[in-house]
Amino acid sequence: MQPGHLAELAELEESYWWHVAKRKLAMTLLERFAPPPGLLVEGGIGASGNLVAFRERGYDVRGFDIMPEAVSMGASRGIDSVSVHDLHQPWPVEDGSARAVVMLDVLEHTAEPVQVLANIKRILAPRGAMVLTVPACPWLFGDWDRMLGHYRRYTIRMLRKQATEAGLKLVWSGHWNSFTLPAAIAMRTLGKFRKSEAAEFPRVSRSVNSLLLSCASVERCLLFRTGVPAGLSVVGVLQHAAS
How many domains does the structure of the chain reveal? Predict the structure, then answer.
């Protein structure tokens, strides 16, 4: 992530529908699989908005990011338990001590995702859970992904395979953000004919933002009742394979 994008993230994550809806989804899954209290560790903290919310929910939080700017921003928001760390290296957390681990749109940025997941397995408590989201639809991979530093987009099958190789089990999975998939396909198709200098979040009006939040709320209900067949993201919950 570029420092300029981090500044944009800090501006948007409190109200922009995509960040708010994704955080609500993660909160719902945490409540189901690894509710507070306990230690929650986030890999790839961004602007620390998630850590602030997780702490307010009752977790003891720690966070890691490869960007010093992200760590400085977290400290400025009152999160002093954040540090610079390469997620490919063993995480400086006691073995089996994490009630929950969260990585929201981070794993796709890693060159060796199985190694990252193996590091998480070591720190995850026996009955703990990891909640993660990753971009879906590998056939959509393009300039947008490259500008954001993505190595790949995922299918549920790909995520399950990587989890298994790391000694973890995908205990729950689904698709998220189905309602913007048609627009994303159109935008990526158009992007093939028009070069962009940066990957930007599409700005929307306040009314459209509210509408998209409502769509995400309805989708979240469907996700846990009937499932959602496709979406721009894959969401999953991982636990120890022996759980």
Answer: 1
Greatest alpha-carbon pair distance for the chain in Å reads 50
Q: Which run of H or E residues covers position 207?
A: helix 206-225
Over the stretch 2-56, which tens digit does the pLDDT of each residue have?
555 676 777 788 889 999 999 999 999 999 999 999 999 999 999 999 999 999 9
Whether 135 and 154 have beta carbons less than 8 Å apart is answered as yes
- Tokens found for residue 188: 């990526």
Is 230:176 a contact under the CB 8 Å cutoff?
A: no
Angle value at C-alpha 176, between 184 and 23, nearest 5 degrees = 110
Q: Which H or E run contains 31? A: helix 17-33
| Structural domain that includes position 46 | 3-240
Whichever domain contains 141, its CATH number is 3.40.50.150
CA torsion 155-160-163-167 (nearest 10°) is -170
Is the Cβ–Cβ distance between 166 and 121 less than 8 Å?
yes
Structure tokens at 193: 């004919």
